[in-house]
Design a protein that fits this description.
Two copies of one chain form a homodimer. Chain A is of the alpha+beta class. Chain A is built from seven helices and four strands. In chain A, strands 2-1-3-4 form a four-stranded mixed beta sheet, covered by helices on one side. In chain A, strand 3 and strand 4 form a beta hairpin. The longest helix of chain A has about 30 residues. Chain A is globular, with a radius of gyration of 17 Å. At the A-B interface, helix 3, helix 4 and helix 5 of A face helix 3, helix 4 and helix 5 of B.
């Protein structure tokens, strides 16, 4: 197994976290997305959409899209429930993550970390606030009555949402008003085999 | 089975199209999203994210997110391949659809159909052009060598991408430069049990 990844990416972290839980060995190939390394001819041959993470399996098949990779790796393990409705609800939360959460919270975080501060950047950041807090609100209302997102236990839905929620502050989002989300973050970080996003840092890095 | 839907929604059409292929009877409950009917307390109890489509199964379980609903309905049918890597590739295309295609092409279409023409709307539409054409380019390069998106046959990945691609012109996108995409649109519309997006209209409506 080979993982093409950029270490500051929450989408990549999802895959690294699940691989750690499953104790699957893999070769990490770092891709400097800021230097255009995910847009080279060689990379686009693996993923024409030019995004990390991508995995290459031992029989040389490539797979892109972080949440599709999570599903692929989790099938048949404890991280994906068996009942059909629960599997679908895991997917429901993962599609929610990519459509209603990531474009606001992760994008804001990326701009704050990697894009020069300008009036235009501030305007864009402001335009992301409402959607990001709406997504956190949806999570808060669900987690007020549930320890985990689906089926009362830790699944890849939690991994998918944890990745950027636990660093939401780095995107300018304040979790003070989201106590159920913060308690859930603690439950995720307490799972056996948990690893932080960046090597050598704590769970808040 | 009950489907909460807005008939002009491509996300809803995905579900209606698969239900037609599977010949599953259902009760359609129309939700006027323009009148705020997807934000009522009753609706938010089904989907706190306030979006259609939502299905309610015969045993009263609700499920949201169009592509999660497709996966739920397709499990065990010909519309979702069995091999693990193919299932994951179906998901890869469905996550691509929600992250890299829908926010550009479907959003532009919604604005053009339902939002007053202003300078601001024109600016927003222009900002969606590059991303939308990039998504069509990814599809074009893949479909140049493949009849369908995954495993050489019609799956829910095709249904998910067909929904807004076949009405891309309504979002201001010109498919003239995408001949492989246009041929694929024809193959989808020729599938047994195919239904158009809006009742009583052709496949281009």
């Amino acid at each position: 197994m080979r993982l093409y990844d950029y270490l500051d990416s929450g989408n990549g972290y999802k895959v690294r976290l699940l691989l750690a839980h499953l104790a699957i060995p893999y070769e990490l190939v770092e891709v400097d997305i800021l230097a255009g390394e995910s847009r080279t001819e060689q990379f686009l041959a693996m993923n024409p959409n030019g995004r990390i993470p991508v995995i290459e399996t031992d029989d040389c098949r490539t797979l892109a899209e972080s949440n599709a990779i999570l599903f692929y790796l989790a099938e048949g393990t404890n991280y994906l429930p068996e009942p059909r409705i629960d599997r679908a609800r895991v997917l429901q939360w993962m599609f929610f993550e990519q459509y209603s959460h990531e474009p606001y919270i992760a994008t804001s975080r990326f701009w704050l970390r990697h894009v020069e501060a300008t009036t235009e950047r501030e305007r864009l950041l402001e335009s992301k606030k409402e959607g990001g807090y709406a997504a956190l609100g949806v999570m808060e209302s669900h987690l007020a009555d549930a320890d985990f997102l689906v089926a009362g236990r830790y699944t890849i839905a939690d991994i998918a949402l944890y990745a950027y929620t636990h660093v939401a502050d780095q995107g300018g989002f304040d979790l003070d008003g989201y106590p159920a989300v913060r308690r859930w973050l603690g439950r995720v970080a307490a799972q056996p085999g948990f690893i932080p996003m960046l090597p050598g840092r704590g769970s808040e890095s």
